[in-house]
């Protein structure tokens, strides 16, 4: 079965909704206008079981088929990014310093399209829980929704989500069973030395050499402390120190990110970083403090639910346009918390050529919205047939 005809017929509405959302981006948990727009659309569709204020501005809506059966969860993220848009589009962001540079406006639109169809047809058993989530980019809104009990409160048995990918073939789905996106940790190192005149270094304790040594030593965690078959990224992304050419600074700061899939590897990285920082501080005579912050866990697809989701994707776009074993990505995603709470699957949907995610020139491809909406709808119909 290809894209659902009645959803294809919604294409203009989907585009209008998506471009409205794009023009009015909101950050983190402050997605109140977006949530209000979602609730307005859901109400128009005849959905009355709507719950707001979850994780501050999240929305959960229930569509009941009127037949006994389980509840399936479908999730879309709503938040934007703190970036200035440069697309020049008619529907470009109207809010300075904020833009939908990751396509969450499109994800929300696809779930709204599925909601409209499912509310009209109710050709399934049990219930559908529509999860409109804030704060995916920063803040872990998915974790907060889980901690606030949405899975138990709405008796959700399994949960699914999709994410658009510019640069991948338009309308192609790809996923993988098991880990699909990495855990993300952040490290912060503050180094305290003793500043002074650049002409008299012997009267100072320079924090710059130990900052450089720490950054270089961190590279050996990947090359020498873990098995090559274990995926691991350690990236130093910031080194800050100094203010003038003739002043040796008193402080230095080192910051970066760690991406892993295995908690054992994660533990090893944190331990080795602490050893390197402590040893380097002793060697250079400075004080150095490591703050290692664990962020989103790895996003791990349930094997059985991924197989089912792949079959649904094939039903929508054809077997040749679905890659079931694409491998893992080193990006991170807070849908991980929902997959820790319930079995489910996370799929990517190719958006065709265009600027990449988190790029100020990015814009969601409206042509894929009917595909994503059809996928969500068919998930329900095939998971819980009437």
Stretches where pLDDT is under 50 for at least 5 consecutive residues are none
Rg estimate, integer Å: 24 Å
User: How many helix segments?
Assistant: 11
State the end-to-end CA separation: 17 Å
Average the pLDDT over all residues and give the rounded result.
97
Description:
This protein is 35% helix and 25% strand. The protein has eleven helices and 16 strands. Helix 7 packs antiparallel against helix 8. The model has no long low-confidence stretch (mean pLDDT 97).
List keywords for this structure.
four-stranded antiparallel beta sheet; Aminopeptidase; Alpha-Beta Plaits; 35% helix; 11 helices; alpha/beta; 2 domains; 386 residues; eight-stranded mixed beta sheet
């Amino acid at each position: 079965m290809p894209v659902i005809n009645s959803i294809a017929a919604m294409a203009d509405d989907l585009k209008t909704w998506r471009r409205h959302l794009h023009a009015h981006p909101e950050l983190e948990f402050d997605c109140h206008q977006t949530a209000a727009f979602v609730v307005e659309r859901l109400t128009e569709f005849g959905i009355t079981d709507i719950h707001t204020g979850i994780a501050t501005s999240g929305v959960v809506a229930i569509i009941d088929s009127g037949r006994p059966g389980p509840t399936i969860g479908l999730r879309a993220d709503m938040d934007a990014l703190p970036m200035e848009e440069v697309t020049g589009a008619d529907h470009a962001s109207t809010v300075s310093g904020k833009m939908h540079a990751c396509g969450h406006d499109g994800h929300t639109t696809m779930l709204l399209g599925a909601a409209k169809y499912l509310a009209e047809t109710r050709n399934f058993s049990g219930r559908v829980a529509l999860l409109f989530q804030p704060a995916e980019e920063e803040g872990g809104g998915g974790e907060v929704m889980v901690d606030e009990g949405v899975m138990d409160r709405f008796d959700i048995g399994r949960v699914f989500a999709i994410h658009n990918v510019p640069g991948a073939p338009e309308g192609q789905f790809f996923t993988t069973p098991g880990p699909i996106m990495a855990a993300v940790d952040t490290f912060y190192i503050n180094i305290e030395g003793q500043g002074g005149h650049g002409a008299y270094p012997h009267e100072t304790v320079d924090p710059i050499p130990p900052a450089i040594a720490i950054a270089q030593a961190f590279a050996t965690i990947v090359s020498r402390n873990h098995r090559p078959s274990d995926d691991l990224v350690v990236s130093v992304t910031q080194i800050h120190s100094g203010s003038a050419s003739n002043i040796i600074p008193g402080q230095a700061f080192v910051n970066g990110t760690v991406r892993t899939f295995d908690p054992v590897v994660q533990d090893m990285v944190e331990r080795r970083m602490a050893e390197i920082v402590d040893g380097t501080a002793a060697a250079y005579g400075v004080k150095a403090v490591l703050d290692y912050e664990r962020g989103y866990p790895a996003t791990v697809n349930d094997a059985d639910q991924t197989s089912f989701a792949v079959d649904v994707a094939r039903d929508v776009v054809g077997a040749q346009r679905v890659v079931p074993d694409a491998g893992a990505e080193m990006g991170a995603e807070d849908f991980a918390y929902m997959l820790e709470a319930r079995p489910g699957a996370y799929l990517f949907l190719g958006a065709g050529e265009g600027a990449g995610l988190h790029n100020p020139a990015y814009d969601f491809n409206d042509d894929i919205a009917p595909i994503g909406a059809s996928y969500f709808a068919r998930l329900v119909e095939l998971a819980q047939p009437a």
